[in-house]
DNA sequence: CAAACATGCAACCACATGGTTGCATGTTTT
DNA sequence: AAAACATGCAACCATGTGGTTGCATGTTTG
């Protein structure tokens, strides 16, 4: 996984509106854009742009169905983000351990 | 933890340069700004701005020491980010499980 | 004290972002 | 066929972001 792709995922999650969208999608079934736009406090087209950002980062996928478009969470992106943080934490813990061993010598 | 604070953490991680900084900090000891600015391909002041973004999101802490300033990773922020994703994934998995049980009926 | 060093601050610039409005287009429903 | 619906596209605007340069300030070192 490239740094850039990971950064894009975090960037996509780095906005309250988009975070709210992702949260609602993790909750239940895939929603269509209209439903998803509600309760965000912005216009439908505003919401559309945010959804597009999520699509570009591959955090979400679009599935056209008739006159509406379903929006579905892509759990793989979440996992990649989490894995990246986990790897950082592992390095961090390892460093702390080495420090501990050094001081105990 | 507020949505906004979490969003700020992800936003801070949502840039290749800042991601690289965080990675270097997770690796070893706290570095001072000058060292940290090297190998980023941008000017010292450019790097300083990125570090400030990490400070604002509390991903990193500054510790002045004489004429230099040490930059140290704050693992708590990483954990908060990871926990948030984990919670999303838990909801997601639960939904998949419910769907599975439904189809098996 | 003077030179070198590490950093801070402010102004500036180009471009990205988050939002809006207006209108067009394809799809159901009646 | 007409009305209602869900969405798309483009233009526009204010503000934020990522970067630069120049200069000022405090701290070591010689």
Give your account of this protein's structure.
Two copies of one chain form a homodimer. Chain A has 105 residues and is an alpha+beta fold. Chain A has a single domain (3-104), classed as Arc Repressor Mutant, subunit A, CATH 1.10.10. Chain A has helices spanning 3-13, 16-27, 33-37, 44-56, 75-104; strands spanning 31-32, 60-65, 68-73. Chain A has a three-stranded antiparallel beta sheet with strand order 1-3-2. The model of chain A has no long low-confidence stretch (mean pLDDT 93). The A-B interface holds A 3-4, 6-16, 18-20, 22-23, 26-29, 73, 75, 78-79, 81-82, 85-86, 88-89, 91-92, 95 and B 3-4, 6-16, 18-20, 22-23, 26-29, 73, 75, 78-79, 81-82, 85-86, 88-89, 91-92, 95. The structure holds a DNA duplex (30 and 30 nucleotides).
Could you give a short description of this structure?
The structure is a homodimer of 105-residue chains. With 105 residues, the first copy, chain A, is of the alpha+beta class.
Tell me the total number of β-strands of chain A.
Answer: 3
Q: CATH topology of chain A, which one?
A: Arc Repressor Mutant, subunit A
Strand content of chain A: 5-15%
Please summarize the sheet with the most strands of chain A: 3 strands, antiparallel
Show unreliable segments of chain A: none
Helix residue percentage of chain A: 55-70%
Largest interface: A-B, 35 and 35 residues
Return the CATH architecture of chain A: Orthogonal Bundle
């Amino acid at each position: 996984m490239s740094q850039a792709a990971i950064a894009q995922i975090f960037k996509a999650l780095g906005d309250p509106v988009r975070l709210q969208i992702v949260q609602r999608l993790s909750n239940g079934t895939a929603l269509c854009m209209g439903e998803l736009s509600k309760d965000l406090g912005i216009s439908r087209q505003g919401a559309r742009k945010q959804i597009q950002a999520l699509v570009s980062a591959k955090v979400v996928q679009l599935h056209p169905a008739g006159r509406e478009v379903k929006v579905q969470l892509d759990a793989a992106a979440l996992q990649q983000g989490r894995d990246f943080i986990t790897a950082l934490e592992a390095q961090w813990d390892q460093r702390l351990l080495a420090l501990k061993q050094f001081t105990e010598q």
